[in-house]
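Homework help board

Subject: predicted structure for assignment chain

Our instructor gave us this sequence and asked us to write out the predicted structure in token form, then describe one feature. I got the tokens but I'm not sure how to describe them. Can anyone check?
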Amino acid sequence: MAEAFVTGLDLDDFVQRVLAEDLGIGGDVTSAATIPIDATIVAVLASREHVTIAGLPLAEMFFRALDADVKIERLVEDGSRVAPGAPVLRIAGNARKALAAERSALNTLQHLTGIATMTRKYVDRISGTGCTLLDTRKTVPGLRVLEKYATRMGGAENHRMRLDDGILIKDNHVAVCGGVAQAVRAAKESNFGLLIQVEVDSIDQIEPALSAGAERLLLDNMPPPVLRKAVDLIGGRVPTEASGGVRLETIREIAETGVTYVSVGRITQSAPAADLGMDYEISVED
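My token output:
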């Protein structure tokens, strides 16, 4: 049974598909050829750099999927910041099965930890501004639920998970509808009962959007001086979100303009895998 640390994804199915991709039809032939069938191992998964951990419950599932009797000790929790050399998970069980699960467990843990680590850097950079970091839908297809979990472990808040989570009117919607006000009015008349957010890329779109009933404004690709002007004009009537090309070196200045949120696609789209590995403490034959 999967550990319910995320919703919206069948974790048992995910684990089985990932393992099948790695094991193929013949399984881990190298371990079968070199390691006695009854050999056991104690190993530690450890970080090799400063990271924010995400994905340990899922990493455990890979080992348990191949060895129901494996003993696992979680040494830190997801969301923890750990230093180079810090152990995060200890496993003890059948050596062949542990080695067969190793790559799938590490790939997933490294990917999610990489996202959480980059996210934490952005969150730390805007600390004290009162601004909140949001993620986006710029995720690897099929991994959105897990990647957005990782951003939460890094301290961000999730934006829309799916297209049916909220109404976000963007430039192409505006173009087809013939203007910001027309798009907002059409959204309100739809009666979906969802919050209506509108992307504006110029100051002169703000009042038409608000007058038509926009409940949140996404201020797209505006430089900080323009963002300040926009925030002053909006005057707290609705929450504001800055978006577009935000980087670690620019996010602090953007957050200090007074926007409510800053959304960053890079935290899921461009995060490098974290450097974690599995090191063997004991290897013996029963």
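Reply (TA_rk): Your tokens look well-formed. For the description, you could write something like this. The mean pLDDT is 95. That's the kind of observation they're looking for.
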